[in-house]
Amino acid sequence: MSLDPSILAELKDTLLAEKKRLEDALSKFATKTDVPGEYETRMEEIGTDMEDNVTEVEGYVDNLAVEANLEHELRDVLDALEKMDAGTYGICEKTGTEIALDRLRAYPAARTAISK
């Protein structure tokens, strides 16, 4: 199964929209680094008393976990876009078989096929 160019374009548009959504979400609390797909969580400055500092640290720790999840999703999207450019998109990383179109439509950044 070779992907039809119109389907490939549809999936690429979906991936680009997801890339933008993830980058927008990350930019609300993190700064982009020089490494593509990686961000650094910012420490919010609320105030200088002890309660403010505790709130800042709690927010920072919460944002670190969110950052890790969003970065993981973003890396998957960036990898899928690179595979499209390389002509290897839609191939399972574990088995080398084609990933079903239904799976790609449901999750365009899929790395693996689902065995039946």
Structure description:
This protein has helices spanning 5-27, 50-86, 101-106, and strands at 30-32, 39-41. With 116 residues, the chain is mainly α. It has one domain (5-28, 49-106): Up-down Bundle (Four Helix Bundle (Hemerythrin (Met), subunit A)). Strands 1-2 form a two-stranded antiparallel sheet. Strand 1 (30-32) and strand 2 form a beta hairpin. Helix 1 runs antiparallel to helix 2 (50-86). It is elongated and about 60 Å long. The two termini are 17 Å apart.
Short précis:
The protein is mostly helical. It is built from three helices and two strands. Helices cover 57% and strands 5% of the residues.
Fraction of helical residues: 55-70%
- SSE pattern, N- to C-terminal: HEEHH
Q: Can you tell me the CATH superfamily?
A: DksA, coiled-coil domain
Q: Which strands sit side by side, in order, in the main sheet?
A: 1-2
Our estimate of the beta-strand percent is 5-15%
Instruction: Please give the count of helices.
Output: 3
The first-to-last residue Cα distance is 17 Å
Q: What is the count of structural domains?
A: 1
The CATH architecture would be Up-down Bundle
Class from helix and strand fractions: mainly alpha
CATH topology: Four Helix Bundle (Hemerythrin (Met), subunit A)
Biggest sheet details = 2 strands, antiparallel
